[in-house]
Design brief:
Strand order of the largest sheet: 14-15-16-13-12-17-18-33-27-26
Low-confidence stretches: 501-511, 513-517
Radius of gyration: 28 Å
Structural class: alpha/beta
Mean pLDDT: 94
Number of helices: 30
Largest sheet: 10 strands, mixed
Strand content: 15-25%
Number of strands: 33
Length: about 800
């Protein structure tokens, strides 16, 4: 007679299929042909393409291929609807969002089955993860709409928003983008992925049920040509894109100089780090959720397994045993773990990358199980023996493929984790909270999960560093992506700004407190440096008199400055109190020489308000010093047994091209907030009036500012900005010198490394006006948010 253990070993899950009756009826109700949803009306389905079930290849419906004329109609409808949507007020919009949330819950099973049919992911995932979280986003953002007049009083809606989402989370990505945009008062032109449009079209129907006003939400379907028309449309104010890094680069280039607000959530190659003291069994289950959830078609999938050497072999044995028990099959079967890939094209791409690993000498292991004869499938795959330079070690595979490596020390784990162009997410598994909290800040990723994986919530921001994009979705930081500071509307045009700065030029003073026979050098690594080019340029005063020669910086000087900035990485680790004290000290030393700096400003610009500018500069230093230890993060309480800590981290090395108007105040207003939050800076001072910044060397040398934290390279603003934007070791570039063409070039060149930009375009800025030059808006540009998920009791 068999033992209980033997009986249990022979037991297996029986099929538990989900009915598709309601979903099929909904498709039949529409004749399996869908037009576009524009201005609360459905267009006729004319030029169409097929949408297929990836599990068996059967056609589900015919979807309309939109054209440029359709996008134009959608944008016009959104523009017409915008004033009325804003006029509804926060409470009016909150009631609509709340109704959408309720309708999503009411029709949750229909949405879940339709998503599984169209996408291939398992019904367990659509039912238990995607739909509850989608509804949660509408509930959460109904709250932000209600509180908008209080929490975002100094902001307004951006306007018409274009949103483009991928095929891996069709409905959930819609919720992530549509909910905050509507809450903020924007109207939307939404494009779902070509492969997976059906749940977006069902959502359009519930918009009608919920009473969303005509034109507020418009859905246009089709291939990449539709996305291109949205990106290039001149009357769209904001673009939100989730997808590949390659397409993200194209969008950044296409929008350069357009003034469009842009957020990009792009690819990832996330590390899953297991230390030797971790609960290995729990880590294996976390790994299953991290890499095989949604067949690994997840931008934040933990596709790089890093295991401490002492437990590596034991952990790999456990992983293989767990892989052997993963069930691959019909995604409508509630007992299945891994469903179908979205399309045969994706299957072929994954197969090609795995075969490249084999050809590079890696070991490829798959469990012994069969896949259905029809449809797009790929078995869960483990690759070992890959070097850090192997293709599969640094390329986003976007499939159920895991690449495993070992490490010896925590320091090596961090090095391996950061050895990627991406920076979207990471997992850290250890029983030592001190070890976890030591490693987490060193990992360059926008989201880090400790002893858990793939946790998401509407209250917690999500987004990446480096080539994983910029901007956040979810949380309060996600709301800011769909808002514009009202102070931006008050910015003067450049001619007005310059006129105000000059304030009726007066003759230069005869007495000169500075020696005019010297050449002002560059300031790199805490030392004065001669320009590599060997060239200098004469600077003349407002009356045409010679004031001094300055060094003409070059590409080599920028390179030296960036190297010095990276060597000064300790500034980011210094306490906020320490950074504040240094800024206070700079202000104190500037105040001692206020008369000299005022005279220099008057000589260069002829300003009658030079003393006022110096005093404002001192006050501005005090202002940003005050913020240094007060721009704290937040502790969120998502619906899990734990907390999520949102940390405001420095961006890294920022290149700053400073304005010509108010040469001292403009310089300090940009450089000081960057320093206050722990960034290092390579600054290009005013091209026309650089001496006010160059004369700061002596102040900096006596103010305990570590060498390399602030580097000043004078010269041609266009050439130096071009070098900054092209440099792969610079994390962000700010340009505020009023050059529209130069600002566009910065945005375009930054696309190669997807660095963040903050540009002023052709408009100036009243640097004396705190609303235009201070506040949280500047702090947000000088920081990036890392969300750290910390569960209790595990």
């Amino acid at each position: 007679m068999p033992t209980i253990k033997e009986i249990l070993q022979t037991m297996d899950y029986g099929p538990a299929p989900e009915s598709t009756k309601e979903a099929q009826a909904w498709l039949d109700q529409h004749g399996r042909r869908f037009g576009l949803f524009i201005d609360n009306k459905w267009t006729e389905a004319l030029d169409t393409f097929g949408s297929f079930n990836p599990a068996d290849g059967s056609e589900l419906a015919q979807i309309t291929q939109a054209g440029a004329a359709d996008v134009q109609l959608a944008v016009e409808a959104a523009r017409r609807a915008h004033p009325g949507w804003v006029a509804m007020g926060g409470h009016g919009r909150a009631t609509v969002l709340y109704t959408l949330a309720r309708l999503l819950q009411k029709h949750a099973r229909l949405f879940a089955v339709l998503e599984t049919l169209d996408n291939g992911k398992t019904i367990r995932e659509t039912r238990d993860a995607d739909l509850p979280l989608a509804a949660r986003h509408f509930y959460h953002h109904a709250g932000w709409a209600q509180l908008q007049s209080e929490e975002f009083a100094d902001y307004r809606a951006v306007g018409v928003v274009g949103q483009i989402v991928p095929w891996n989370f069709p409905l959930l990505m819609l919720a992530w983008k549509v909910a905050p945009a509507l809450a903020a008062g924007n109207t939307i032109v939404f494009k779902p992925a070509e492969f997976t449009s059906l749940t977006a079209l069902l959502f359009a129907e519930i918009c009608q049920m919920a009473g969303v006003p005509a034109g507020v939400v418009n859905v246009v379907t089709g291939d990449g040509r539709v996305g291109e028309a949205i990106v290039n449309h001149p009357d769209i104010n904001k673009l939100a894109f989730t997808g590949s890094t390659e397409v993200g680069r194209l969008i950044r280039k296409a929008t350069a100089g357009s003034g469009k607000k842009l957020s990009l959530e792009l690819g990832g190659k996330s590390p899953f780090i297991v230390f030797d003291d971790a609960d290995l069994d729990a880590a294996v289950e976390g790994l299953v959720d991290s890499i095989w959830f949604n067949q690994g078609q997840v931008c934040c999938a933990g596709s790089r397994l890093l295991v401490q050497e002492s437990v590596y072999e034991r952990f790999i044995v456990k992983v293989k045993a767990r892989m052997q028990n993963l069930r691959v099959g019909s995604p409508l079967d509630k007992s299945v773990d891994i469903g179908a890939l979205v399309d045969p094209v994706q299957q072929q791409r994954i197969h090609g990358l795995v075969e490249s690993a084999r050809s590079e000498g890696c070991e490829v292991w798959q469990p012994a199980c069969a896949t259905p004869a029809e449809g797009s499938w790929y078995l869960p795959t483990l690759i070992t023996g890959a070097s850090t330079s192997a293709t599969v070690a640094h390329t986003e595979i976007f499939g159920p493929v895991l690449v495993a490596m070992s490490f010896r020390t925590p320091g090596e784990a961090v090095q391996l984790a950061n050895n990627t162009a991406y920076g979207l997410a990471a997992c850290v598994w250890t029983e030592s909270i001190s070890l976890a909290l030591d490693v987490v800040p060193q990992i360059k990723a926008g989201v880090v999960w400790i002893n858990t994986a793939n946790q998401f919530d509407a209250a917690c921001g999500f987004g990446g560093y480096k080539e994983s994009g910029f901007g956040r979705e979810g949380g309060k930081e996600g709301m800011y992506e769909y808002l514009t500071p009202r102070s931006e509307d008050a910015r003067p045009n450049l001619a007005q700004a310059v006129a105000k700065a000059k304030a009726n030029a007066k003759p230069a003073q005869e007495a000169n407190p500075f020696q005019i026979d010297r050449t002002a050098k560059l300031y790199i690594g805490g030392k004065q440096a001669r320009p590599d080019s060997g060239y200098s340029r004469a600077i003349h005063g407002a009356g045409g008199e010679f004031l001094a020669d300055i060094g003409e910086g070059s590409r080599k000087d920028i390179r030296n400055a960036v190297e010095a900035a990276h060597k000064a990485s300790g500034w980011a680790k210094a306490t906020a109190h320490n950074r504040a004290q240094v800024l206070y000290y700079i202000a104190e030393n500037l105040a001692v020489r206020a008369d000299e700096f005022a005279a220099r400003i008057a000589q260069q610009t002829g300003s009658k308000n030079a003393e006022k500018e110096v005093q404002a500069s001192i006050e501005r230093l005090f202002y940003w010093a005050a913020w240094a230890d007060k721009y704290d993060g937040q502790a969120h309480q998502p619906p899990m047994h734990g907390i999520t800590v949102a940390l405001n981290e420095p961006v890294g090395v920022i290149g700053i091209v400073c304005p010509n108007e108010n040469p001292l105040l403009g310089f300090i207003s940009l450089v000081a907030p960057a320093l206050a939050l722990g960034n290092r800076v390579v600054a290009v001072p005013s091209q026309a009036h650089p001496l006010s910044a160059l004369d700061l060397y002596q102040v900096l040398d006596t103010s305990d500012l570590p060498g390399g934290v602030l580097n000043i390279v004078s010269g041609n603003a266009d050439e130096l900005a071009r070098t900054l934007a092209s440099h792969f070791d610079i994390d962000a570039v700010w340009r505020h010198d009023g050059s529209a063409e130069g600002c566009a070039e910065v945005e375009r060149l930054s696309a190669e490394s997807l660095k963040r930009t903050w540009v002023g375009g052709a408009k100036g800025r009243d640097w004396f006006d705190a609303k235009q030059a201070c506040g949280r808006v500047v702090l947000q540009h000088a920081s990036q948010v890392k969300n750290v998920w910390i569960p209790y009791g595990v």
